[in-house]
Design a protein that fits this description.
This is DUF3299 domain-containing protein. The chain is an alpha+beta fold. It has four helices and five strands; from the N terminus they run ααααβββββ.
Length: 228
């Protein structure tokens, strides 16, 4: 009998130590922030960032004119030609080389695509603790068992605006499920992050959104957000 008590006492102590260790690890784990999910890619300075709204509009006008010139049979009017030359002259007065801007345009577009769609490989196959908001994908009864973790409340479900870029969304599997009080309720999600592209439809009263992500996670824990 005494031996049985000792075994039970030892088991209870071991269980308590395991819980304590888990709690210490959770508290010590530094949170992974959404900007951390962006890829580490070589970037060049974006020349368009220095342009004011009027210049961006004028540059768009020139771009549309150039695209129209590629269409077979297009013949620009004299007025259109004069307008484009005047716009280019205005840029020249500000020491802005329009032709060079269009050369850099393709590089900037590729850079923006990478920054929006590639994962940060340094974070993959490691445990992370990420704050965010839940957008349900699958339910079991009243519990959410699969969801998109997003950086802002209500992201992915209203059109417009468009959903966040694919590397600012995490598709989370959580078979245990969580009772969701509100889409405005922030949570912590903890688990191993891995790279696997996925799409899912999110249907709400104001329409459906086809959401893409390059991150997935099998969550070990989902809890209401609290600051440490």
């Amino acid at each position: 009998m005494k031996l049985l008590k000792r075994i039970l006492l030892g088991s209870a102590l071991l269980f308590s130590l395991n819980l304590l260790a888990k709690d210490v690890v959770a508290q010590e784990m530094e949170p992974t922030l959404w900007q951390d999910l962006l890829p580490q890619v070589e970037t060049v300075e974006d020349p368009f960032a220095a342009l004011d709204p009027n210049q961006l509009y004028d540059l768009g006008t020139i771009a549309r004119y150039r695209d129209a010139q590629k269409v077979e049979g297009f013949t620009p009017s004299k007025e259109s030609q004069q307008e484009i030359e005047a716009l280019k002259a205005n840029f020249a007065k500000s020491n802005i080389d329009v032709d060079e801007l269009f050369v850099q345009r393709e590089t900037i577009m590729q850079q923006r695509t990478k920054l929006a769609t590639l994962p940060n490989t340094e974070l993959l196959n490691k445990a992370h603790r990420i704050p965010g908001f839940i957008t349900p994908v699958e339910m079991e009864g009243t519990k959410v068992t699969k969801f998109f973790l997003v950086p802002t409340a209500g992201a992915c479900i209203h059109t417009p605006p468009p959903p966040p870029p694919p590397n600012q969304i995490v598709l989370v599997e959580y078979p245990e499920g969580i009772e969701l009080v509100s889409l405005q309720t922030p949570v912590w999600v903890e688990g191993e992050l891995f790279n696997e592209a996925a799409k899912a439809n999110v249907n709400y009263s104001d329409g459906a959104s086809n959401v893409e992500t390059v991150y997935q996670m099998s969550a070990q824990e989902v809890e209401l957000y609290q600051t440490n």
